[in-house]
Description:
The complex is a heterodimer. Chain A is mainly α. Chain A has two domains: 1-30; 37-249, MetI-like (MetI-like fold, Orthogonal Bundle), CATH 1.10.3720. Chain A has ten helices and no strands. The longest helix of chain A is centred in the last third of the chain and has 38 residues, at 162-199. The model of chain A has no long low-confidence stretch (mean pLDDT 86). In chain B, helix 3 crosses helix 11 (235-263) and helix 8 (166-175) packs across helix 9 (179-217). The radius of gyration of chain B is 24 Å and the shape is flat.
Amino acid sequence: MTARRFAERAIADGLVLAAILGWWLLSRRLPDFLMPSPWRVATTLASLFLTPALLADTAASAARVIISVSLATVLGAGLAIIPYRWPVTDGIVRDRITPFLNSFPSVGWAILAMIWFGTSDAAVVFVEVAILTPFCLINILEGLKELDHELIEMGASFTRHRKRSFLKIVVPLLLPYVMSALRIAYGIAWKIALVAELFGVSSGLGYLMLKAEIVSDAASVYATCFAIVLLFLAGEKLVLDPLSRLVAYK
Amino acid sequence: MPSANSLAATEPRAANAAWTQRRRSRLAANLFTLAFLAAWWGYSLTVPPFVLPGPAPVAARLYQFFTTYNLWKQAVASLEHILAGMAISLVVGSALALAAHYAPVLRLAVHGRLSPFLNSFSGIGWTLLAIVWFGIDEFTVVFAISVVLTPFAIINMREGLETLDRELLEMAASFTRNRWREFVKVVVPSLAPFVFATLRISFGVSWKVALAAELFGGRTGLGYLFNLAQQNFDIRLILVVIAIIIAFVYATDRFLFAPLQARFARPDASAGP
């Protein structure tokens, strides 16, 4: 068993090494604007986190992602609760708002935001929230549908206080769904952060990337892509994983 | 609806209440749509038309869209990009998932390295890299769509392979020693619901990726129209393209994928990303 595990590891890491090696060999034959060497991309990547001016862009993107994910989760939860509280609105949320937001193209939001709000931080956050909200909404709607009704009835038999039973029973039961909504939103947020920043603003990783693309600075384009992968993985390992463990133990 | 009928026979009042409830809910939804259009119209009167044109000019432009050949051509081009991307990603993703399933030694390489990497790489990143590599071209667009969709295919097909019915496989093994035959007759049919789930998810995602890819790296397609409209400040065209996409994606999901998937129904097959 351990021998097989070892072989699995060797192949997986060997593949990564082979990919980097292949990239390096290619970069020696191709010009820099097409395929920069891994080493140059690595130094550019490091400068995104170390050079103060570039770190400001990285931090701006990260701040926008964090704000948008939180807003989208709150907004999605709010929209999902409405039909739970007032069943008449079920058709509005489920058959109108959800499909509308869900099939709205993300580039469409980006262009409209640029026309409506000009180039500002708020425009970028608006675009990200607009794209993320349906994912949160769908997840929490699903959670509300799966709620254990017997548990809620039991709660009702213990107290007539609706708010109390909502806080003590519905909210804890819903937490795993909110958590997975947060996780999905976070995963998408980093990918679409670039789209949102390509149009609106003059800071952030998306802006850096577009600027690099225009002057054919391929090393920076590569580095921004990898920076996003790193930031995404870091946030998931350092924030989301501990948070979902916390929710699961409750 | 036989179940609704039997319910009505046993509990007429409850069924009636549920029916009234559903009708009310639908009425509320339609009123909401009207209110939305009215609010749009009202607001469009207060702002200049290059910020937000009203529903009537947009509808007129939509009519113009449907009667102009060139615009149809762009819509068809987008559809072609998407179908090509979906097909490629399904084949590549399934091949990778199958490889990891039948050669477990590759499992970590596929599910632990490749899939998370692809999954956390931004679609716009792929598009800009593809422009650097291949130039502004149809191939760039199809490449970007395929790479973005591949992890969805890997994850879904893995799910499918892991829930294969062991007893069914044992039974198949007792009938034939021919592994290929077993694969085609037993494994492939049990994977069908997961293929559908993959296609359904891919379709929803691919429209968004396709537009972004065509906007930056294409010379054809609805995303390219976006690019032109943005340069000419033709916000009516932007709204028309958005409306067409919403209508098309919603209609396809509702009238094509939902009934098809209900037929292949397996409750856990719709597990999305």
